[in-house]
């Protein structure tokens, strides 16, 4: 444990990333140790490690994860374990789970923009932002239909069959829900 106390934010991120797998029996314990060591520092990478640690611990820590991600984004530093696009995507998912769809939309869009700049985007076929399209179903079926129709007019749609299949499938689902007058209702609400 003495060595652990001397870890900086970069090392905390590496430790957390190494223990990322859901079936890792030490995942929760490592997450709690990362939070203990990184929560009250002035190191943005420690804030990032804490944000992911809170995320790994589940829904009861969601609000704290959001706070730590926002804190990190106020002074972001490059990290080899967590790309900025994955930070944006995780934060978008957290906001969506909190039913803050406006913030979720903003971060899904940022995730897509940042991913397009990443090395992964240069070696992989593009994929549509299905999470954003599905978020739009919660906001408005008309907005979801419009999003997928726009995607069907894109250069990527014309060029990549895998992109086209996803867009066609999601557009069909959105149109069907729109035709039925679907309105999103969060679990537990009437």
Descriptive overview:
The mean pLDDT is 92. Helix 2 runs antiparallel to helix 3 (27-38), helix 4 (44-57) runs antiparallel to helix 5 (62-73) and helix 5 (62-73) packs antiparallel against helix 6. The chain is globular, with a radius of gyration of 19 Å. The protein contains 12 helices and no strands. 70% of the residues lie in helices and 0% in strands. It is mostly helical and 190 residues long.
The Rg value, from CA coordinates, equals: 19 Å
* Helix content class: over 70%
Number of helices: 12
Main beta sheet, described?
none
Strand content: under 5%
The chain-level mean pLDDT equals: 92
Globally, the shape reads globular
Question: How many strand units?
Answer: 0
For the record, give the distance between the C-alpha atoms at the N and C termini, rounded to a whole number: 49 Å
**What are the low-pLDDT stretches, counting only 5+ consecutive residues below 50?**
none
Order of helices and strands: HHHHHHHHHHHH
- The structural class is mainly alpha
């Amino acid at each position: 444990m003495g060595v652990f106390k001397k870890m900086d934010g970069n090392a905390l991120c590496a430790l957390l990333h190494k223990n990322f797998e859901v079936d890792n029996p030490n995942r929760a314990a490592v997450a709690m140790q990362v939070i203990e060591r990184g929560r009250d520092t002035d190191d943005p990478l420690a804030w990032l490690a804490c944000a992911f640690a809170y995320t790994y611990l589940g829904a009861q820590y969601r609000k704290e994860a959001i706070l730590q991600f926002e804190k990190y984004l106020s002074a972001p530093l490059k990290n080899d374990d967590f790309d900025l696009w994955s930070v944006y995507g995780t934060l978008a998912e957290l906001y969506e789970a909190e039913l803050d769809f406006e913030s979720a939309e903003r971060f899904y869009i940022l995730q897509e923009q940042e991913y397009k700049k990443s090395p992964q985007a240069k070696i992989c076929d593009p994929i549509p932002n299905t999470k954003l399209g599905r978020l739009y179903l919660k906001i408005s079926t008309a907005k979801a239909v419009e999003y997928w129709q726009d995607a069907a007019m894109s250069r990527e749609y014309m060029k990549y069959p895998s992109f086209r299949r996803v867009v066609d499938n999601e557009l069909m689902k959105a149109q069907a829900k729109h035709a039925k007058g679907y309105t999103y209702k969060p679990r537990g609400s009437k």
